[in-house]
From TrEMBL:
<feature type="coiled-coil region">
    <location>
        <begin position="311"/>
        <end position="338"/>
    </location>
</feature>
<keyword id="KW-1133">Transmembrane helix</keyword>
<protein>
    <recommendedName>
        <fullName>DNA recombination protein RmuC homolog</fullName>
    </recommendedName>
</protein>
<feature type="compositionally biased region" description="Basic and acidic residues">
    <location>
        <begin position="383"/>
        <end position="403"/>
    </location>
</feature>
<dbReference type="GO" id="GO:0006310">
    <property type="term" value="P:DNA recombination"/>
</dbReference>
<dbReference type="Pfam" id="PF02646">
    <property type="entry name" value="RmuC"/>
</dbReference>
<comment type="function">
    <text>Involved in DNA recombination.</text>
</comment>
<feature type="transmembrane region" description="Helical">
    <location>
        <begin position="16"/>
        <end position="36"/>
    </location>
</feature>
<keyword id="KW-0472">Membrane</keyword>
<dbReference type="InterPro" id="IPR003798">
    <property type="entry name" value="DNA_recombination_RmuC"/>
</dbReference>
<keyword id="KW-0233">DNA recombination</keyword>
<comment type="similarity">
    <text>Belongs to the RmuC family.</text>
</comment>
<keyword id="KW-0175">Coiled coil</keyword>
<keyword id="KW-0812">Transmembrane</keyword>
<feature type="region of interest" description="Disordered">
    <location>
        <begin position="362"/>
        <end position="403"/>
    </location>
</feature>
Length: 403
């Protein structure tokens, strides 16, 4: 559009106007070129500044990268050293732990072998015990041997608890019966009867019963046998004036004793009515200890006169000891008085020593000769001089008595 305007103006203008226009056009072009150059220069300077900024940033980045690489290198070296030390310590601990575990394993194996040896010994003992149990079962299966077993336990308890001579095994009564044990009571009292023939076969039959009906029949049989045995004891062994009015039926097992009192209360009441006391090993031992205490009390009563005599002798000894203590006290009093007299004498001696140490010596005649107070006669100067010479060495002793 500008070119069309210029072209229209050139057509209408003269040669001077065209020259001016041309000059203006040249100036405009030059200004435009200068503006373009200035713009290009500013752009170049801006680009150069940006380039320099990029170069500085690149240099700073390279420095930082170098620093980071050095830092990463040092950190990597430290990390490698730390990892190496950690790995070495870990390997050492693992080695120590493995060694300890190995040693502990060997120790546990050794203990296990010892325990296995103990278990083997215990198993051998159990086997021998099983053989003994089988033998005991064989013994208990026989009635006579079973009675001997119960009587053996009873005899052991009594023999351990009572002194010899205070009991009799298999003693004979006036009716020709022989109870298992007779315990002699003090004060000439009748002996106490103990029976150990407990009906154990009926108890074993009741225990071995498999069905309820068989168990009920075995229980009835056990009750009947036990009551029959209680009546036999009351009839044979309770003799008025010859034995105590109460007898003991020894049961050789605590469990059987507990089961009887739990399930056969009526039978226990019948035994009390018949004056027969069912005792277990523990109750028998307690009863024997009571009897032993009664015997000990009886022996002490029998020896009461001896105790009284000993007490009288002890009182006599105490009286003599009291007299001797009084005499010794009088001796001590006399010795104290003697010591006081000795102290008085030593006090007098000390005072006399002090008086002796306080003695004063005076020279007589020396002061009078010097002062000239003594008169001298004429013609006797020589004699006066001799008297003064004699009295010069004479001394006067004065004792100062403090008393």
């Amino acid at each position: 559009m500008i070119l069309e305007t210029l072209e229209a103006a050139l057509r209408t203008a003269g040669p001077l106007t065209i020259g001016v226009l041309f000059l203006l056009a040249c100036v405009f072009v030059l200004g435009l070129v200068m503006l373009v150059r200035q713009a290009s220069n500013r752009r170049e300077r801006a680009l150069q500044r940006q380039l320099e900024t990029l170069v500085r940033a690149q240099n700073e980045m390279q420095g930082r990268m170098a620093t980071m690489s050095e830092l990463f290198g040092s950190r990597q070296a430290e990390l490698n050293a730390a990892l190496g030390s950690r790995i070495d310590g870990l390997s050492q601990r693992i080695g120590t732990t493995l060694h300890q575990q190995n040693r502990s394993t060997h120790e546990n194996l050794r203990r296990l072998q010892e325990r296995l040896a103990v278990i083997d010994a215990a198993q051998n003992n159990i086997q021998s015990l099983a053989k003994d149990v089988v033998g005991l079962q064989a013994i208990l299966s026989n009635k006579q041997t079973r009675g001997a077993f119960g009587q053996g336990r009873m005899e052991t308890i009594i023999a351990d608890a009572l002194p010899s001579g205070s009991f009799r095994f298999q003693g004979t009564l006036s009716n020709n019966t022989r109870p298992d044990c007779l315990i002699d009571m003090p004060n000439d009292a009748p002996p106490l009867v103990i029976d150990a023939k407990f009906p154990l076969e009926a108890w074993n039959a009741m225990r071995d019963a498999e069905t309820e009906e068989a168990q009920r029949a075995a229980a009835q049989r056990f009750r009947r046998d036990l009551e029959t045995h209680i009546r036999d004891i009351s009839k044979k062994y309770l003799l008025p004036g010859e034995t105590q009015d109460t007898a003991f039926l020894f049961v050789p097992s605590e469990s059987i004793f507990a089961d009887i009192h739990e399930h056969y209360e009526a039978t226990v009441q019948k035994a009390h009515t018949a004056r027969v006391v069912i005792v277990s090993p523990t109750l028998l031992l307690l009863s024997i200890q009571v009897v032993q205490a009664v015997m000990k009390d009886q022996r002490m009563r029998e020896q009461a006169h001896l105790i009284q005599g000993e007490v009288a002798n002890l009182m006599g000894d105490l009286t003599r000891l009291n007299d001797r203590v009084e005499k010794l006290q009088s001796h001590f009093s006399q010795a104290r008085q003697d010591v006081e007299q000795i102290r008085i004498s030593t006090g007098k001696l000390a005072r006399r020593g002090e008086r002796i140490s306080a003695l004063e010596f005076e020279t007589k005649g020396t002061d009078t000769a010097l002062s000239g107070q003594r008169p001298t006669e004429a013609g006797s100067e020589t004699g006066a001089h001799d008297k003064d010479s004699d009295s010069f060495g004479r001394m006067k002793l004065r004792i100062v008595d403090e008393d």
